[in-house]
Amino acid sequence: MTDPLLDIRSAAPNVDLSLFDDVPHDLPAARQDAYSKAIEAIDVANPKLFYHNVIAPYFERLRREDPVHYYDSKVYGPYWSITRYNDIMAIDTNHKQFSSEGGITIFGDGREMLPMFIAMDPPKHDVQRKTVTPMVSPANLKNLEPLIRQRAAKILDEVPIGAEFDWVDKVSMELTAMTLATLFDFPQEERRKLTRWSDVATAVPGGGVIDSREQWLQEMTECFTTFQRMWVERLQSAGGNDLVSMLAHGPETRNMPPQELLGNILLLIVGGNDTTRNTITGSVLALNRNPDQYEKLRARPELIPSMVSETIRWQTPLAHMRRTALEAVEFHDRRIRKGEKVVMWYISGNRDEEVITDPESYIIDRARPRQHISFGYGIHRCVGNRLAELQLQVIWEEIMKRFPQIEVTAEPERVYSTFVRGYRALPVRIPRRH
Ligand code: HEM
Prior knowledge:
The structure is a single chain. About 45% of the residues lie in helices and about 10% in strands. The chain is α+β, with helices and mostly antiparallel strands and about 425 residues long. The structure holds protoporphyrin IX containing FE. Protoporphyrin IX containing FE binds near residues 92, 375, 376 and 388.
């Protein structure tokens, strides 16, 4: 079998945070900065803007004044920012001109990327996606629901009452790691390895998760070695109802080169983990920042599904997806050249005042709560979207049965990333049970 270390070396992240400009640390200063600088100088792909949560005014200005915005970054090279909801839809559904093949984040130029179906175009994308889709079929989700509920109940029954604790670690990570371990048929007692690998996979050296590219390589190698071993074991067994067995036995995927297997495993680990985890955390934060909405939820728990969708919009757990232009394209009055990176900023589309009423407000009973663009659109639309919603709904149903209030006791610690919009920690206190 190929040495995975050799195979993944070029996929290690190579972003130096010191190359990015410093940014204002609060919103009023960010607004001043966003509107006073020359529009050509706006670089929304600065991870510091996300870390300090001051990105909103920059996107607001781009949506209004330069919705197809060009910036030549010394870190990522030149890239276009698409910031309006309808323009994002137009690009996301146009895979003939805007390819996923060169990579789906702003980083790199495609050669660094492990092959995975999110970063493929048809027909290969379609057959690989089809192989794993049964895992998240309505019937399978129905089977999973009691297990998720039982685990959510146990996690919540064990949190301390009246004392501060980290919601990310004790609740969000636990539930999503347990679900993911089930999807892979991975040993539950080692589930936190999945969380760690998910964090490391998208981490930037020096951003708080890993210190160096070497550390990235070492930890990802452990991940890949583990899954290669599981793949071989599952190949030799009769086939099971887990994602590794599905890939190992699927007619279209069983002869995958090892790198492609590893890429797809990583896709499922990151896709199924960070995003849902950060929305669970985001829901507690959003309800605390909007006590009137929390009150509404207590009065009408039947609003949980729509609160979940509103949180997925508000949070936008993946800030962007990127495409590469396959040919020169006139888009509005701008000319995108062949080979250029086109970044669809979902986080901005979800705040587009032309499409979403009062987008800056968190409103749990919106008329069309699933109108958000957080799951993308078109052929790559999130395959796990119903599973994500299910986990969120179940945890909130179980929370409402137990606790009248979860109080956020300090500011969250955020992630250094222009891609994953998430939290490292959220201190909370639960005053009492019902
Ligand atoms: C709130 C939670 C989630 C969010 C916000 C989210 C977001 C996204 C987005 C934006 C895309 C790309 C869409 C596009 O390019 O048009 C995507 C694709 C994907 N997601 Fe999710 N996701 C979530 C949860 C999950 C879960 C739980 C799973 C695992 C089962 C998952 C697995 C995937 C996969 C495999 C793809 C690739 C689909 C393809 O290329 O055809 N996601 N997701």
